[in-house]
Amino acid sequence: MAVLAADPSPTIVPILLLLVFTLAMSTWVVVAVAKAGAPNPGDTAVAYEHAWDRLDFSTLWNLSGPNLRDGRTRDQFVRDKVAAYRGDGHGLSGLVRAVHPQQVDVNGPVARVVARLELHSGDSVVDEMLLERIGPAWHVTAYHISSGDPRSRIGSDEN
Is position 11 within any domain? Predict the structure, then answer.
């Protein structure tokens, strides 16, 4: 009487399926975490407005696109802004109580954000920004201060 012995080695198919499943799940987790951690254009606009209100020129350089940096390094940009806003910044810092993105329009790698700034004085103003996605982050590429914004007194060199 012949006894058939079972093959003690598993087939490669279940191992390959497990490997493919593991790789797919790992990729999904990495993509999900990367998307969740990336700021949206509204977040960048709010950070930009708060940086202007604090006259935090280093943060402004980080959030600005290359055209708003005017070819300057961070050190040059900060030095130039500190010189321009020497003293109390012409009374233009610490004015903003809150910033709220009113409208965020995204079209691929570009976005337009309209932000409402609530001032400590009780007034509110609306500013508009254009942003571009450069790598994983959004950067402000154009900034329009409303005529009612107290910072509009400074002139055209706001960035």
Answer: no
| Domain annotation covers residue 101 | yes
Phi then psi dihedrals of residue 133, to 5 deg:
-80, 115
Closest CA to 66 of 2, 1, 151, 137: 137
Q: For residue range 88-127, list pLDDT tens digits in order.
A: 555 778 889 999 999 999 999 999 999 999 999 999 999 9
Give the torsion sign (CA, 148, 153, 105, 96): negative
Domain count, the chain: 1
Task: Tell me the whole-structure pTM to 2 decimals.
Answer: 0.70
The CATH number linked to 113 is 3.10.450.50
**Residue 33 maps to a domain:** no
Residue type, 24: A
